[in-house]
Design brief:
The complex is a heterodimer of chains A (574) and B (367). Chain A is mostly helical. Chain A has a 5-stranded antiparallel sheet with strand order 4-3-2-1-5. Chain A has a two-stranded antiparallel sheet with strand order 6-7. Chain A starts with a helix and ends in a 15-residue tail after the last helix. In chain A, 39% of the residues are buried. Chain B contains 15 helices and 4 strands. In chain B, helix 4 packs across helix 11 and helix 6 runs antiparallel to helix 11. The chains are: A mainly alpha (574), B mainly alpha (367). At the A-B interface, helix 15, helix 20 and helix 22 of A face helix 6, helix 7, helix 12 and helix 14 of B.
Chain lengths: 574, 367
């Protein structure tokens, strides 16, 4: 009995290789036995009949590959399908080339894969390098329907690759575009697969397909798989099982399946809530760290010196443009070291903003000490001049600052939730800077002098501290830190002349909320604004969330006019 | 009462102010209507909405001068009150378009565009001019009263108040930028056709609006003058100089500050309402923080603490702006920025300060 079924199974598999169709044999047999048979069948094909079949196969393979260069789209489509179902990774380069429009065919029917500049081509079968510029080549034309088949085929071939990254990518691709024809392929890969992440995805692919079938046991198993690993993308699949028709009867007749589906929905939802919370927390931390970077410099100039610097946003912008300039210098003179431009940009952006800040302090702001409202207006004027200057130098358009390789991409923590490296790096960068500033203020002679001048300017002057110098360095430090903020912002968004404008109101809110003159308050203010913002966002939308946060801050300041971290003491006003 | 009014100004002061009013209300219209178009004395039609716009700005400057120049409270959120008046007027004008919009619908065009089926409830009253007028007169003041009550009660002052008002205008700008808020989103309200049945395209309507603006500005000026000359005004100035001492003398500064803050918002709302039919559009960019800061600089340039200075500053800067944006748009921000810096550094009393300086020089020489 087993022998006969094995034979039939093998024939089925062979047939599936060339003509994929939905096999309904053995639907009542046990899944594991079926799987064993299928694998045995494959082995038999590969080893017992290896000699004759491999010759036939090799011929079929070559012919099919050759068909990729055909003029007819339907021929290409069938060939792609065949190659995908065949499962030989050797076809992968040809398929990828077809997808990227690099596959071409010469006059004498040689299939070549072109290089990037399309000047040279490699013969697919012989591996000869041809100079295609002297040849007449035609490229096979593909349309969307071919492209769809192509993606599935590529995914299938990748699934057999040795690289786990490629396999995971392929598994995810399949999950998005699964069809019943891939069931055997996935089942085979699942057995070979050692990596738990990839296994999970493959199980989900199978679950999605089995659910459409008739086997009740498999369907319940599938629902359980979804219950255990599924993400919110499966809501629609599960909810379909609970739909009623117009007469109020369930479309799905089996009550057990319905009950399981309802449970699965509940547990998937629960997990989704958890995932959302973690994601919100991360994005909140990320937003908070960005706000903190923007506000830290302000906490120094406004908090410690009492200077309302409305041009603070422009210090951020100058830091971002300094990063841009460093990037361009690297592209032009040191393209091989391009990825390390960011390291060089750190001191450059700090110094660029610090120098502009010191010049402003010496030329304008020091004349206005003790007149905060006038300072506000004068620095606003400075900000207008700076914005317009940058516009005239670099143009009004946004400029692109590219991530170096170590900051592009991200970690996928849950399916669909990606934490970009650039944002993680910013959080770490901010922590580093906060510690540095704290050390600078608490542990160095300059910090001691800054604190002395902040507490009592006249007394500090009497003790021989040059208050003017301290003002200058403090303002330079605050501006420089803003420049570092610009460097960080350039890694996650556009750089334009108005970059600073977007952050000025937020930065002031952070400093006012945290309490003036306290670095710890600024940190707390930034992160609480960031996290509250992101938690509100799903309920109210981004803009309304921001408005609510602003209103909350205004309300909170009514209660605690000195901010969250008010300095203790009985200072009278002014 | 009349005696009191007359004593607000010296004879020369009254002559100047009535002279300017007469120039705007009588001379310009006469030059427009009765002088032939070829003559160089002829005042062309386009001048009226332009001047009307400047007068609206002057009214805003007057309002800011009351709260900043006289009471020492810098608001960076007056764009909100201006926009409230403007939007209330804009809603009325929007409703009076009727079915002449692009979509020939009963609803305003942007609602049709958003596929809304009926008017949101807060648009109901705007069919009637009288109701809209009531909103224009009450809403900005009421909003300012509530906001100011909570802010002044917690003794938020100086820079903090400036920053909070800036956050307020920023938040409201974001709110009005949303399409769902129901005020036309990004594009705001525009394409107005008529006001009280008069076509807004008619030169005579434009001229009338200009004359009304001039009269409102004149009356507001007299009112402000009356307030700053009164005992109330002196308390306000005292609050500006040393608030704690005023409190220790037994005054409740909250009431004084709240009164002048509300009045300032009230005047600002009227300015916005007069501005919209003359300019033909109101959108959320009026609530940009930068706009409100620019308003404060009009006052600073003209001269804080002098009513004439505020009006002068608003007029001069906006004339300069009109000229720059045509002749040298790239350098307008340079000009404005350098003006900000130089006025705060070198002219703490504004342009009026220069005149005063020279006139006092003359007097000294006579002695």
């Amino acid at each position: 009995m087993g022998g006969i079924s094995l034979l039939i199974e093998s024939i089925c598999l062979m047939a599936e290789i060339t003509f994929p169709y939905k096999s309904d044999f053995f639907t009542d047999s046990d899944k594991s036995i079926q799987l064993v048979f299928r694998i045995l069948g494959t082995f038999i094909i590969l080893f017992i009949f290896i000699a004759p079949i491999s010759i036939v196969e090799a011929n079929i393979f070559e012919v099919t590959i050759q068909e990729l260069g055909s003029k007819s789209r339907s021929t290409i489509k069938i060939a792609v399908k065949k190659l995908g179902d065949h499962g030989d990774p050797a076809a992968l380069p040809a398929l990828l080339a077809l997808k990227n429009k690099r596959l071409a065919i010469t006059e004498n029917e040689r299939l070549v894969i072109l290089n990037e500049s399309e000047s040279k081509g490699r013969d697919f079968f012989t591996g000869d390098i041809l100079n295609v510029e002297s040849l007449v080549i035609t490229k096979p034309m593909i349309n969307n329907s071919v492209r769809r088949v192509l993606s599935t085929a590529i995914a299938k071939l990748k699934l057999t690759s040795d690289d786990p990254v490629l396999r995971l990518e392929a598994a995810k691709d399949l999950l998005r575009r699964s069809s019943s024809s891939i069931i055997p392929l996935v089942e085979i890969s699942l057995i070979k697969e050692k990596n738990d992440n990839i296994k999970e995805v493959l199980l989900l692919v199978l679950a999605k397909e089995y659910l459409q079938g008739d086997d009740k046991k498999k369907r319940i198993e599938s629902i359980n798989t979804i219950k255990n690993f599924g993400s919110k993308e499966f809501f629609s699949v599960l909810e379909e099982l609970l739909i009623k028709n117009d007469e109020g009867e369930f479309l799905e007749k089996d009550s057990e399946i319905r009950r399981n589906a309802a449970e699965a929905i509940k547990s998937v939802k629960k997990r989704q809530v958890f995932i959302d919370q973690v994601a919100n927390l991360f994005y909140g931390l990320s937003l908070g760290s960005i706000l903190l970077l923007a506000a830290l410099g302000l906490a120094i100039t406004f908090g410690l010196m009492g200077v309302i610097n409305m041009a603070h946003g422009e210090m951020i912008m100058i830091g971002a443009y300094a990063t841009f300039v460093v990037q361009n210098i690297f592209i032009k003179y040191l393209p091989s070291l391009f990825d390390w431009y960011l390291i060089v940009a750190i001191p450059v952006s700090f110094l660029a903003s610090a120098i502009v800040g010191i010049v402003l302090e010496r030329s304008v702001i020091r004349h206005l000490y003790g007149r905060p409202l006038e300072t506000l207006l004068a620095t606003w004027g400075i900000s207008l001049v700076l914005i317009q200057s940058v516009r005239l130098i670099f143009g009004a358009q946004n400029v692109a600052v590219e991530n170096p390789f170590y900051l592009s991409g991200g970690i996928e923590v849950f399916s669909g939730v990606i934490f970009p490296y650039s944002r993680i790096a910013i959080i770490i960068f901010v922590i580093f800077i906060v510690i540095l500033i704290w050390m600078l203020l608490q542990k160095t002679p300059l910090g001691l002098q800054v604190r002395a001048v902040t507490q009592n300017r006249e007394m500090a002057a009497c003790m021989g501290i040059s208050t003017h110098k301290v003002d200058m360095w403090t303002f330079g430090l605050g501006s420089g830190v803003a420049g570092l903020g610009g460097l960080a912002l350039s890694q996650i968004g556009n750089v334009g002349p108005e970059l600073g404008r977007m952050y000025i109101v937020d930065s002031f809110m952070v400093v006012v909320l945290g309490g003036v003159g306290k670095i710890a308050g600024t940190v707390a203010g930034a992160f609480s604004i960031g996290i509250v913002n992101k938690i509100l966002e799903p309920f109210s939308g981004a803009v309304l969330g921001k408005i609510i946060v602003l209103v909350l801050i205004i309300a909170l300041i009514q209660k605690r006019p000195q901010g969250l971290f008010a300095p203790k003491g009985r200072n009278t006003e002014d | 009462m009349i005696k009191e009014l007359i004593s607000l100004h010296s004879l020369r002061g009254w002559l100047y102010s009535f002279g300017l009013l007469a120039l705007a209300v009588i001379l310009l219209p006469v030059l427009n209507i009765f002088i032939s178009e070829e003559s160089f004395l002829h005042v062309p039609n386009y001048v009226f909405p332009l001047l009307g716009k400047y007068l609206c700005y002057a009214l805003v400057a007057l309002a800011i001068d009351l709260i900043w120049g006289y009471t020492g409270i810098l608001s960076l959120g007056h764009g909100v009150f201006f926009s409230m008046g403007g939007y209330a007027m804009g809603m009325y004008l929007m409703r009076s378009i009727g079915k002449e919009g692009m979509y020939k619908s009963e609803l305003p065009d942007f609602m049709v565009f958003l596929d809304w089926k009926e008017l949101p409830w807060y648009w109901y009253g705007s069919d009637y001019f009288s109701f809209s007028l009531l909103v224009i007169l009450l809403l900005p003041g009421l909003f300012a009263f509530v906001f100011g009550y909570y802010a002044f009660r917690s003794r938020i002052k100086g820079v903090y108040f400036a920053i909070i008002t800036q956050a307020m205008t920023y938040a409201l700008m974001l709110l009005f930028f949303r399409n769902d808020t129901g005020f036309g989103g990004n594009n705001g309200l525009t394409d107005f056709k008529r006001i009280l049945g008069y076509s807004l395209q008619e030169p005579s309507t434009k001229m009338s609006l200009f004359i009304i603006t001039a009269i409102v500005l004149f009356l507001s000026y007299i009112l402000s003058r009356y307030i700053v000359k009164s005992k109330l005004g002196r308390v306000l100035t005292a609050i500006r100089d040393v608030e704690s001492r005023v409190m220790f003398s037994g005054y409740n500064t909250l009431h004084y500050k709240l009164f002048i803050w509300t009045l300032s918002a009230f005047l600002c709302g009227i300015a916005g309402a007069l501005y919209v039919p003359q300019v033909g559009i109101i959108n959320p960019s009026e609530m940009q923080p930068s706009n409100s800061i620019e308003m404060a600089i009009w006052v600073a340039v003209g001269g804080r603490g002098t009513l004439g200075g505020a009006i002068l500053g608003a007029g001069l800067i906006n004339i300069a702006k009109s000229w720059f944006t045509v002749a040298a748009p790239d350098y307008w921000l340079y000009f404005l920025g350098i003006l900000f810096i130089s006025v705060t550094l070198f002219l703490p009393k504004g342009l009026i300060g220069i005149f005063d300086h020279f006139s006092s020089h003359k007097k000294n020489r006579k002695l």
